[in-house]
Amino acid sequence: MTIDEIIDFVDGFDGTLSFRPAPGDGSPEISWGDTFFFYSPDGVMPEATQPFATIVTKNCPGDESSRLDRPDTFRVNIAAGKEEFIDWTGHAPREPAADADPGITDAVIAHPVYGSVAWLAVVNPGRRTDEAVRRLLRAAHHRARARHERRTGSAPSR
To answer: Which residues form the DUF6194 domain (predicted)?
Structure first.
């Protein structure tokens, strides 16, 4: 999967707002080139909501273990939820575990920084993880939509 394929896929979900920070939009330079996916049916950037998934294209301070400084390397990060996280990793988010190398490509792993809050990650998703990434992204979107509906009292959109 390419970055554009992932963005196109997630943009197909109802109520999704994709934010791609760039020079001149007020976002910090470290985020330029990355993509953040929010559930926002009104199309307005939510102020107090975390994205349900992200694509990062470079190492960030404290998050270098995926080695995103390699050529043509990126990581998709997904708010998987506790059950999906356990299914993929074999342990609860806050339990210590000997997880896979964070730089391994085309493998679903606990996020190297946010695994403790049930985020999963895939560096350069490919043939082995394509369907899993799509399924996890759909589920993350569904959870984000459900949270939004609970918070706002809005009915599900059809």
So the answer is: 1-152
